[in-house]
Amino acid sequence: MVTVDNVTRLDKKLSKPTVRAVKETRAYTAFRVVNATLLVLIAAITLYPFANLAAQAFSSESYINSGQVTIWPRGFNLTTFQLVMSDSMFWRNYQNTVYYTVVATLVAMVLTTTYAYAISKYRLKGRKVFIGIAVFTMFFNGGLIPNYVLVNELGLRNSVWAIALPNAISVFNLLVMKSFFENFSTELEEAAEIDGLSTYGKLWRIVLPLSKAVIATMILFYAVAFWNSWFAAFLYMDHRELYPVTVYLRNLIAGATSVDGAAGSAEATQIAANVKAVTMLLTVLPIVCLYPFIQRYFVSGVMLGSVKQ
Amino acid sequence: MSTQDGVTVDGTVAAQTTVDRTQRAAAPVAHGAGPSGPRDRADRRRREGHVTWGRALRRDWQLYSLLVLPLVFFLVFRYVPMLGNVIAFRRFRPGGSIFGEEWVGLHYVRMFINDPTFWNVFQNTLVLGVLSLVIIFPLPIVLALMLNELRSQRFKRIIQTISYLPHFMSIVIVAGLVFQLTAMRGTVNQVITAIGGDAIGFMQLPEWFRTIYISSEIWQTVGWGTILYLAALSTIDPQLYEAARIDGANRWRQTWHVTLPGIRPTMVVLLILNIGTFMAVGFEKILLLYNPLLYPTADVIATYLYRVGIGSSQFSYATAIGLFEALIGLTLVLSANAISRRVVGASLW
What we know:
The complex is a heterodimer.
Chain A: H1 4-15, H2 18-58, H3 61-65, H4 79-85, H5 88-119, H6 127-139, H7 144-153, H8 161-164, H9 171-182, H10 186-194, H11 199-207, H12 212-228, H13 231-236, H14 245-261, H15 266-307
Chain B: H1 2-7, H2 11-26, H3 38-46, H4 53-84, E1 90-91, E2 102-103, H5 107-113, H6 116-136, H7 139-148, H8 153-164, H9 171-182, H10 187-194, H11 206-234, H12 238-246, H13 251-262, H14 264-276, H15 283-289, H16 295-298, H17 301-311, H18 315-343
Antiparallel strand pairs in B: 1-2
Helix pairs in contact in B: 5-18, 6-11, 7-11, 8-11, 9-15, 12-13, 14-18, 17-18
């Protein structure tokens, strides 16, 4: 709030050293120009790899091989696209990605929502212990080998459960949901209770329908994480038909680099570069297309989580 | 009285209690369970901390039932593997118990202490961790301050949207882009040859790995890292800037004396979290990027134990290494938290 007193003092202060004020604004204007230019430059650098990727995907092999492709396709052609898209394994693995993402997100949402709702109730006896059980796992976890042994022992190899179960609850997401439920209107829940709804009824018929925004955010958090993940599938899937598209891509990249390193025929190298670019482009496309619409949910989710931890 | 019973926890609870009571007065026999006069309710609230487990379970059994599945998850997939770390001290036989067969004590610990490769990867982990912390940690603060100086909200939003994009990319894509840009005919070498240098085989030269790793981390994480700082910046009271202006502070001094102290709590919390994950340097990314030629700089504890454990099935040995790493991580986060609580009065819990 600006009081009258403040304004007059401010005016006096500003009107007295005129020369200095002018000098300062000039310096500040210069700063603003430099600042804006730098930010544009940063944005350009951020986008460059994507532009380069798209350019390579549509370029002919000879131009990539002679290092002439930057942000514009040279020797435009669609043959590599046809090549990649005719690979049935690529589509199969793409389908797997969709399937794994849907199942894993569903499991994660059920577990996260129920736990978050219960621990958001202050009257729950042992609440602190239940929160502690979850939070402790953020700072200490079993590690790679014990997890690997466990998943194998449970017989989850080569099934979607090897991906969905070990990562079912992200504690960060859990805390975001918890703080959302903590701020949920208690009047509504009390009213529902008077109408004879059980805890399940309240959660299912009152709380969840009114929490669509946070639920959408959580689904996006999980779905993007599972869509992008590769390591669990890489560890636990033994057959090519079971790979998600990220592992398909990983194997392509690893194969291509070994061709590079072994100084194989130039032909093999640049075909690999071309195929790689197209496969990567097809993999990032859904995320890049959805990105402008989902971005703000992510931002609000992160902020919500930072309120209380 | 009505104010007294609420203060125990916080404002939210106080509000809840009041609503609770008025509605109860309107519909006295809503709950079925327990007495319901205002006085009894208040008494019960006050004794809330001393409710026996039996009563709590009877009253809230539905809430507790919601906890069951997630607790099974935490138990099986988080706490059992923690206990599974005991195979660091017990010999593990494939197909046998996941908790190992017989005690061998510190055999595996002695093994990695005497393993020169271990100390090499330990050093690489420290170097990458320190570089990440020193170089990457301040950058989101700088970027957030730069964005904060923009007057056009539209321009600011566009830059933000672009800078968040890499965060959404799979690490496999990031690795693919790194290979593409650092290839012999890739963009980086195009620039080098254009200014008269010779093309460099970046992914075959260990001396380049750290630069490449840190650059790709900057590209992927800095934009997204600004979100919390921008949120903190927007909560700074405009009156403080005004007061600073009245005192004759220029833009730079305003930033130094108002803006930076304003986002200090955020900085401290993020610093503690970063220190906690200090040892867990981007395992998946390194696994995707490195090859045997790069081991001298690229091989870190996590990738080494991956090769030892999954690659050559020395489960017990790899677990001992992993446990060592996890304990360092836990110690780091606890001490960072304790120090910051004492020195700056901000902490995670």
